[in-house]
Predict the structure.
Amino acid sequence: MFRPRIIPCLLMKENGLVKTTQFDNPRYIGDPINAVRIFNEKEADELLFLDITLSKPAARFTKKKEKKIQYDLLKKISRECFMPFSYGGGITTIEEMELLFSIGIEKVAINTSAIEHPELIADASRQFGSQSIIVAIDVKIGKKGNYEVFIQGGTRPVKADLATYIRTIEDAGAGEILITSIDRDGMMQGYDISLIRMVSDAVKIPVIACGGAGSINDMAEAYHKGHASALAAGSFFVYHGRKQAVLITYPTKSEIKTLYQEKYEDRC
């Protein structure tokens, strides 16, 4: 049976790692290099780093329009990684992607730029191959119960219809979709299975589920019931116990096997 990738999603703010709750109140977690070394030892499938500083409007629209992807830090992280390493945050041009790939990053994730400059998806796919391009989509449940798409770090809603948008980015050449529930982020109460299944069933490209994982059982449900191809999480990998003490961890091989328990076998 196909085994879904299990991916720690690590949030960068300046030179450190943080964890948010519903995209707010970032809490310092630790040094990214140390975290990478631990995930190396635990044989994580992949790592995904997202720089949340560069997603906010203030970072994107200063008077001088300055933004600084931390290439030096990312290069150090890449040198330490024994597993595939993806990065997102503040990417707006092909030239930036080219530089990121040159320092060892295997995939880039774009979110706001995919909405503001949709041609970037096709251009990047043609130049680097669709397997290198992740389009990240952040959603909240609206007042009418519908899924609303947000950009700029969850601060700005857009009028894009989610069902239409995911098919558009697939047609444009995206290799994967990272779908994140803002409502579930950091809550550790389970993924939004309806959201994940809606997206996964509507496209043929892999879908990475993110937002809400609190246990291996949550991941199993996102895979079997949500039809996700990969399972990303943040809090699940960095918090331990009721008091949420910081402890970098990753499921053991025996825990990962529970993803295939028969009680979840309603994947179709």
